[in-house]
Structures are given as C-alpha cells and as structure tokens.
C-alpha cells in the first residue's frame, strides 16, 4: 500500500517503523526541517518538509497516488483540512485523523472523515488493521482500548462464508455480537449461517485482531 502520513512525533515514528516493516510505501510530511532529517536517516521512507495542510505540499507528496492518508499534526483544524482535501479534492478513499480535543471526534466523523480518534496510543493498531484488510470498514477501541469492535463485510471467497457459526473455529475470547444483513440486524446463535455480504460486528481484545481476521478471511 501507498500511505501518506502528515505530522506527529512519537506515535508517528511507531507507525513509520511498523508499516515500513510490512513493506508499505510510506511518504511522510512534517514542517520541522531537523525532524525531517532525523526521520530520513532512521527510516526508508520518502520525507517532505512543509505544511501538510497546503495543497501544493500534498501534491509534491503525490497524494493522489496514495491509498490511505493519516493526519497526525498537533492542530485539529489542520488535520481536518488535510483529510477533507484528501477525500474531496484528491479522491483518497480512506482518511484518518488524530484529534487533541475529544469533542472533535464526532465532528470529524460527521464531516466524512473515516476515523477520528483522540487516544493516540491505539492509532497504530487501528491503522494496521484497516490498511491491511480493506474489507474492514471500521475499527473502534472501547474501554480505554481494552476491547475492540471491528466491522467486517463477508466476501464469497472468505473461509466463513456460507457456514454455520457453530462450525467455525473462533477464539474463545472473541464474539460475533451482531450480523447486519441488508436492513436486518441479527443476534446470532450457533445455528446462524454466515452469508456473503453480511456485515459482522466482532468484539475482542486488541491483541487478537490478527488471529481473528485470519480466521474470518483464510481460516485457522
């Protein structure tokens, strides 16, 4: 994947390290020249020094070539501008932002930002899941990050497609809490069949996300 990250410090470096190790192509924008030099020495990523809320800087970073844009500056307004530009001007499908003021989370979502989160310590895990499995539409941490809710849309090719829930090997620490089938909401039991295009609402500890996704997509 091609991923553009704008701004941030410590959490950004964790993301850069994690995503680079998984061979994503990363472009990083920051307005601190010395910090940009430091990042370019430490990570195999494209680094651009400038204000990431300015269209000409985003265009220099070839924003339209990216699959995902992540805005992590210290300014909520800048992050909103970056994500709005990404989605509405440059046609980026997925845009994520961190926010300093938790009250802005709902505002960002209402304005079309895919995910806005104030708890930056869970951003790395959230981005990792969303960018590696495109069928996940949402990843939301609750209870201070100790529980995660993910939404997965089932495809015909998936391991669990057209199987009864009781016949699927699933972690004992995770649960499919609800199935959205068209306009119908289903509280599943063991005899519920998983159908293509079902949206599964799955609750689990964050550290089990990769295991669960392997079970859903490819099987245990």
TrEMBL record:
Record-annotated RCK C-terminal domain positions: 137-218
Domain RCK N-terminal: 1-117
Keyword field: Ion transport, Transport
Keyword Ion transport appears in the UniProt entry: yes
GO BP annotation list: potassium ion transport
One Gene Ontology term of the molecular function aspect: monoatomic cation transmembrane transporter activity
InterPro entries, alphabetized: NAD(P)-bd_dom_sf, RCK_C, RCK_C_sf, RCK_N, Trk_Ktr_HKT_K-transport
Keyword Plastid belongs to the record: no
Protein name listed in UniProt: Potassium transporter TrkA
Species this protein is from: Terrisporobacter othiniensis
């Amino acid at each position: 994947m091609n991923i553009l990250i704008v701004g941030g410090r410590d959490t950004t470096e964790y993301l850069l390290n994690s995503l680079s190790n998984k061979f994503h192509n990363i472009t990083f924008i920051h307005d601190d020249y010395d910090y940009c030099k430091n990042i370019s020495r430490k990570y195999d990523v494209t680094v651009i020094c400038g204000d990431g809320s300015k269209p000409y800087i985003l265009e220099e970073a070839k924003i339209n070539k990216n699959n995902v844009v992540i805005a992590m500056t210290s300014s909520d307004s800048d992050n909103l501008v970056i994500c709005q530009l990404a989605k509405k001007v440059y046609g980026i499908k997925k845009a994520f932002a961190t926010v300093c003021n938790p009250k802005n989370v709902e505002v960002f979502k209402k304005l079309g930002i895919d995910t806005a989160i104030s708890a930056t310590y869970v951003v790395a895990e959230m981005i990792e899941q969303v960018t590696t499995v495109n069928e996940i539409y949402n990843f939301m941490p609750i209870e201070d990050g100790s529980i995660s809710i993910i939404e997965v849309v089932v495809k015909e090719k998936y391991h669990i497609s057209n199987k009864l829930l009781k016949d699927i090997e699933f972690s004992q620490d995770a649960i499919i809490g609800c199935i959205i089938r068209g306009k119908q909401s289903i509280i599943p039991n063991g005899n519920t069949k998983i159908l293509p295009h079902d949206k599964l609402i799955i609750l689990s500890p964050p550290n089990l996300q990769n295991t669960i996704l392997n079970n859903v997509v490819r099987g245990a």
